[in-house]
Amino acid sequence: MPDYIFTIQNGPLKGQEYPVTKDILTIGRDANSDLALNENSVSRHHARIICTGREVLLEDMGSLNGTAINENLINEPTLLVPGDIVRFGLHLFMRFDTVEVAPLAAPPAARSKSDTKRIHKAGPAPFSLLIRGGRQAGQVFPLVEGSHTVGRAPDSGVLLSNEDISSQHALIHVKEEGVWIEDRESANGTYVNNSAVMGPTQIKPGDVLQLGATVVLEVHAGVALRA
């Protein structure tokens, strides 16, 4: 079975790694937690990791502010896949990855062939959207590889509550080579750096998106730190 690791994606501890060292790993603000998180929106006994041998499951333990995988709140033990972005509480984002053991190339008479090192199999850093202004100001939406709907519909990957946003307003495609956004014939339009989106348009960190008349989002590499 490969080893597993969580890496903090934002805040003052960005980059800190927490290996999964037990079959059941407790997560929370309590100092006795296996993975103790000093974040006010994290409950004392927030969640737990369950390693079954072939799978790793994440379970919320009735926390106040919830646990989400790729911004989907969970309410039962849920399978984790390498590359997933997990949110604990309101502000803390962590990336789940595998760590494999591989043999080292040993210099003569220095190391045996059985010596090992850890190779971190993290993919490229994900992108994220940070909302600027309005009722959702400061909210962060991590964008992992795949397609993400943007709109007012409850099942949207990027859920926006403003009335001038269409139910299915836009679609974001995250690929290995970059990120694209396309408007889905919304009533009030989609703009990148004040230019109307007329077809699939590539976006990059630093770009400013406007959806409808009022929602402004910034594109970030990695998971943005909330304002």
Describe the protein.
- The protein has 227 residues and is mostly beta strands.
- It has 2 domains: 4-98, Tumour Suppressor Smad4; 127-221, Sandwich (Tumour Suppressor Smad4), CATH 2.60.200.
- It contains no helices and 23 strands.
- The chain has strands at residues 3-8, 17-20, 24-28, 35-36, 47-51, 56-60, 67-69, 72-73, 78-79, 85-88, 92-103, 116-120, 127-132, 140-143, 146-151, 158-159, 170-175, 178-183, 190-192, 195-196, 201-203, 208-211, 215-221.
- The strands form 4 sheets. Strands 1, 2, 7, 8, 10, 11 and 12 form a 7-stranded antiparallel β-sheet that branches. Strands 14-13-23-22-19-20 form a 6-stranded antiparallel β-sheet, with no helix packed on it.
- The two termini are 39 Å apart.
- The relative contact order is 0.14.
